[in-house]
Design goal:
Largest sheet: 9 strands, antiparallel
Distance between the termini: 27 Å
Number of domains: 2
CATH architecture of the largest domain: 2-Layer Sandwich
Oligomer: single chain
Bound molecules: flavin-adenine dinucleotide
CATH topology of the largest domain: Alpha-Beta Plaits
Number of strands: 19
CATH class of the largest domain: Alpha Beta
Amino acid sequence: MSEKNWAGNVTYRAGKLRRPRSLDELQEVVGRATTLSALGSRHSFNRIADTAGELVSLDRLERPIDIDSETMTVRVGGGVKYGVVGQYLQQQGYALANLASLPHISVAGAIATATHGSGDLNQNLSAGVRSMQLVQADGSLVEVAPGDEDFDGYAVALGALGVVTEVSLAIVPTFDVATSVFERLPWPVLLENFDDVTRSAYSVSLFTRWSADTVDQAWLKSRVGRRADINTVAQTTETFFGATPARTRLHPLPGVSAAACTEQQGIPGPWVDRLPHFRLDFTPSNGDELQSEFLVERRHAVEAFEALRALGDRIDPVLQISEIRTVAADTFWLSSAGDRESVALHFTWKPLQTEVEDLLVDLERALAPFDARPHWGKVFTAQANSIAPLYAHLPDFVSLADRVDPNQKFRTDFLRERVFGF
Ligand SMILES: Cc1cc2nc3c(=O)[nH]c(=O)nc-3n(C[C@H](O)[C@H](O)[C@H](O)COP(=O)(O)OP(=O)(O)OC[C@H]3O[C@@H](n4cnc5c(N)ncnc54)[C@H](O)[C@@H]3O)c2cc1C
């Protein structure tokens, strides 16, 4: 087996890739395996889904998408892509509160790593879970839901607690969004007005190279008709904190065609076609990039920006583009936004693994004073000993994993090295 992740920087070591077609078959595969890891849509940039044992994918396990308008939830298979769920919900008049930048990511895989979009009031995607069905290490099925004693452990589980087969997600009535893009937001203005900038729209993304005097682009995704967002929608022809409205649709990367990007220029449209940065019908088979991301507590945002700007000359040669987003706090034990309002500092790197990892040693050191938590699914160098102090509930997670997976079936090398520490 020589299967790779989307970015091509990880070749999975597993001897077998299992693709069960039924729940019974999946339970048998999991129950029988000695070491096993669930594989989602392969969009992580590190060995989090890798194992020397067996991999199991849910891509052949068909589950219906089932809307319950009484409880305002949608039940989906763990392997389905967010974009597919989103299109179905939109057809039926419903929406999810938020999405990540790429709609091609699987629901269970995204939840497992605390994948997030942006927005001062938007929590990560795990926060949308209303219940989850898992196949546990012994092959039995369990259903967990918010309010259960250990749910805050299950919500972001890094694949360590079982294979998620079905998820119920909270839904809301559909809404329209308009994306306005502004260019060249002066750094000094942003540092002075960061809170006002990020509260300007439902979801704000700032694209920067750190070393320049201005942030390249500010993407403001506003909910149409929502009072707080009306000003931003109207602002397509005015300046935004000194930034000027983009004349055409833009890709976050300078000079790259915007054909893959969702609609901009303040043109309203359904949430599902606006909240991701990239279109679902644009299918990236693999990516010529690596990604890293670090989440700091919001009150440290400006200091963290300054630390990164001081490293700007080192970052520049390997960087394609960075993105700054905000994420609302949640209560999940291993969530990168757990117990704190957060600012996410994202890096899309050139595909230069060694150079990126070398730089990350210094970059992570520069962000350490702000207790920066690495995105679990992206490239980072920190090991378990430096990660443990960042998560007060890690001991609870370890004892939960020991209880539900006593033979450490799901304990991959990545989990031992980065999380459990043994
Ligand atoms: C182009 C691109 C854009 C991205 N944009 C964002 C973004 O906007 N925001 C953000 O936060 N992240 C983003 N990411 C990162 C991505 O969301 C995460 O890495 C996510 O975990 C990938 O999900 P996946 O389905 O590909 O899972 P995989 O990478 O295959 O696996 C990730 C983890 O999920 C576990 N897992 C997968 N399926 C299951 C299952 N059924 N049951 C239990 N565990 C399971 C795996 O074991 C592993 O631990 C992006 C990645 C790419 C490539």
